[in-house]
Amino acid sequence: xxxxxxxxxxxxxxxxxxxxxxxxxxxxxxxxxxxxxxxxxxxxxxxxxxxxxxxxxxxxxxxxxxxxxxxxxxxxxxxxxxxxxxxxxxxxxxxxxxxxxxxxxxxxxxxxxxxxxxxxxxxxxxxxxxxxxxxxxxxxxxxxxxxxxxxxxxxxxxxxxxxxxxxxxxxxxxxxxxxxxxxxxxxxxxxxxxxxxxxxxxxxxxxxxxxxxxxxxxxxxxxxxxxxxxxxxxxxxxxxx
Length: 241
Fold this sequence. Notes:
This protein is an alpha/beta fold. Helices cover 32% and strands 18% of the residues. It has seven helices and ten strands. The chain has one domain: 3-Layer(aba) Sandwich (Rossmann fold), CATH 3.40.50.300.
């Protein structure tokens, strides 16, 4: 674990956070400490379980823009992130990352726009809007070849299954070079990365689970193995409403 840039973090709960909505998220409200043990860590859970809220706060605590980008990106199209970041105290490793990046699928358009208008001083940077969302998204990720700290929120959102496999290969290669990834995902493809740690935010707590115990894997497998039965049952239930 000595080679990890961020070994973990502590949440210093205080009076200022008592009225925050994060107290209404059980998985977050019940945690004081978190440790990273692998170069690739996944956060999983149902929508609203708190995984993206914690990831965003962690990214901001690491000095990154809440909408995404590197540590140099300072733009805002909205301001609705929680005050949880101010309560997070990082436990850093021996080495300092030379590159830090926060990637969010939902605000990548804004990041690409800022990249072209604010950080393209020589005018030589490729226009990411000239390609499809998925193509530009993957191309942008693959440019990140420095062994730094990468925080990603649902990177699979714009990617086909084939492109998710491409991303999987890139993540593994970068992790072997020393990069550290903290990723929120619903992708059963990405979650299959060997030796990655998976933490579930379901059932009101944050706990480490096996790949086969993730809902992403179980539901996908159940559907593919029993497609006709599942469709018949689901659509019959829909007709009964």
